[in-house]
Amino acid sequence: MTANNKFHLYVYEGDYGLPSLNVECTKCLLYMSMSKVPVQVKTLGNMKHCLLYSAPYFVHKNVSFKTYAETVLYLNTLNYNLDAQLTAKQKSEALALSYLVQSKLRATLEYVFWIDQRNFEEFTRVWYARALPLPFNIIQTKKFKENAVDLIDSLYHKDSTIEVIKDNLNVLATECLSSLSARLGTSNYFFGEEPTSLDVVIYSYLAPLLKLPFPSNSISTLVALWPNLVQFVSRIDAKYLPGLPKESKYIKNEEKMKTSDDEVSYIAISILTFSAMTLAFGFAVSKGFISSKLF
């Protein structure tokens, strides 16, 4: 396969046995593993990749896509189709279950990652600060948190307390997980012995709740109440995502994952951010990504 014909996928890095800490990136990675797409995966772990790409970002020949849905539609045209054997009725059911998962678990996951103050301060922000280079760790963390806040604000009345929101998300997650567990039963996958795109979506939302060591985990521990869903995640790990390290690359077990305003100098952060952005700009000009004639 020539360089121009190769499949390339840019994603946020994985950790704790996850292919990526980003749900959309996990969907892309798992779909390609299951459908045997010969893709070259690159992470947004350096300045160059962070400057040039978002994630997920899929490239093939002269086309590129920035979402999981667009990427799958394109792969289907190349006969990488996990749903080819499903009947029309099964495809309709898969669509309904996919909507159920995303409507009830997406907000839950966003809350656990970005809204729960303890999780954000002690885990999420710490992890991204170490996984991405400056200033992108600050920029992306701010962006993801704002998106999560916007989502929760769109779902709940402005006067809703954080406890009311959390309790409601618990109820929605419980309802969703109960339905999924009943539908899966003793089967290996949701439509029998072979995985489909529905399994990709469900895994991508369940796995972070099972694997990530959130300090505040009342919601995330819900998944463990349904053993067949836990086994479902483990089954996919073993067959399609083998060998992923379960230990964290960035946060060691013995570390105290806690920061406070007293421990962080925002003046120092501002200086470092400005310096890093200056370096990034200089790199972009030197490589011709930005024309110096504009100035």
From TrEMBL:
Subcellular localization(s) per the UniProt record: Mitochondrion outer membrane
Residue stretches spanning the membrane: 264-285
Domain of life: Eukaryota
Any Pfam family the entry gives: Tom37
GO terms classed as biological process: mitochondrion organization; protein transport
Domain Metaxin glutathione S-transferase: 173-236
GO cellular component: SAM complex
Residues in coiled coil: none
UniProt keyword annotations, A-Z: Membrane, Mitochondrion, Mitochondrion outer membrane, Protein transport, Transmembrane, Transmembrane helix, Transport
UniProt keyword Membrane, yes or no: yes
Predominant localisation class: mitochondrion
Domain Mitochondrial outer membrane transport complex Sam37/metaxin N-terminal: 25-144
Family designation: Belongs to the metaxin family.
Record protein name field: Metaxin
Organism of origin: Ceutorhynchus assimilis (cabbage seed weevil)
Taxonomic lineage from the root: Eukaryota, Metazoa, Ecdysozoa, Arthropoda, Hexapoda
